[in-house]
Amino acid sequence: MKKIKENALVVFSGGQDSTTCLIWALKKFESVSAITFNYKQRHQIEIECAKKIIDFLSSKKKVQINWLKESIHIDHVIVDISFLSNLLHSAMIQDLDMKYNDETGLPTTFVPGRNILFLTIAAALAYQKKIKHLVAGVCQTDYSGYPDCRDATIKSLQATLKLGLEYDLIIHTPLMWKDKAETIKLMQKLGGLELYKYTHTCYKGERPACGECFACELRLNGFKKARLTDPLEYKHR
Ligand SMILES: [Zn+2]
Q1: How far is the CA of 141 from the centre of ligand 1 (A)?
Q2: ∠ CA(39), CA(45), CA(47), 5° rounding?
Q3: Distance from the CA of 46 to the center of ligand 1, in angstroms?
Q4: Number of folded domains in the chain?
Q5: Would you say residue 214 lies in a domain?
Q6: How far apart are CA 56 and CA 53, in angstroms?
Q7: 198 Cα: distance to centroid of ligand 1 (angstroms)
Q8: Lateral strand order in the sheet of 170-172
């Protein structure tokens, strides 16, 4: 991968996909910052995971990714957007059971426009920090029907942000056309597979992960298809 001598800002949730994007960005860009959103998601554990991963990467001794510089600093900003929970009734924020909405066919975890909001706030931060590259782990392949994860949405948002900020911003989406197994293989190729130990996926918010909910199942199936072992601890697998 050709290194770009510029800075990037990664939208980073502490999940599997955004952690892959973080490592991808560290390989591709001269320096990397991360932005995490606290929107009172059901599991605050996600934010703890995000912090842990940044700490892990910043501590010289523990890093086992051989191409990573000995001392790296990732500027990590956590932005409170908890007003989102007053606005929405999504299972991702409130304690509703995961099911599908009969009308839209979308999972109840759907937070309408979440990625548009995240990327717009990230763009405002990037502008102030003079960063021209945003990286987001959105994906059209496994996108569960989320319309704001689609390539067309991201391209259109990029055009809007460029115009609205009058700033030459590029949104990178390295996972856009990958399925879970391909994302896992990319992380293996980047040498960051062990970092998945700290990522959070379980829908029930359990650690060790339950291994039985739909999110754990999707994750484990990805590893199975990639023929690799998930370093995460599970209660059942
Ligand atoms: Zn689970």
Answers
A1: 21
A2: 55
A3: 13
A4: 1
A5: no
A6: 5
A7: 14
A8: 75-80, 29-38, 4-11, 133-135, 170-172
Locate 87 and state its tokens: 């606005």
Q: Strands (DSSP E) along 24-74, which ranges?
A: 29-38
Tokens of 138: 């959105």
Which two structure tokens, joined as six digits, stand for 80? 């409170």
Closest CA to 209 of 200, 222, 53: 200
- pLDDT tens-place string over residues 208-237: 999 998 889 999 999 999 999 999 999 988
What is the domain-level CATH number for residue 18?
A: 3.40.50.620
Long-range contacts of 150-155 (CB under 8 A, 24+ apart): 151/176, 153/115, 153/116, 154/115, 154/119
Lookup result for tokens 């606005």: 87
3-state helix, strand, coil in the chain (%, to 5): 40, 15, 45
- Neighbouring residues of the ion ligand 1, judged by CB less than 5 Å: 202, 204, 209-210, 213, 216
**How many other CB atoms are found less than 10 A from the CB of residue 212?**
17
Centre of ligand 1 from the C-alpha of residue 215, in Å: 6
Q: If pLDDT is split at 50, 70 and 90, which confidence band does 181 have?
A: very high
Domain annotation covers residue 223: no
The model carries a pTM of 0.91
SS3 69: coil
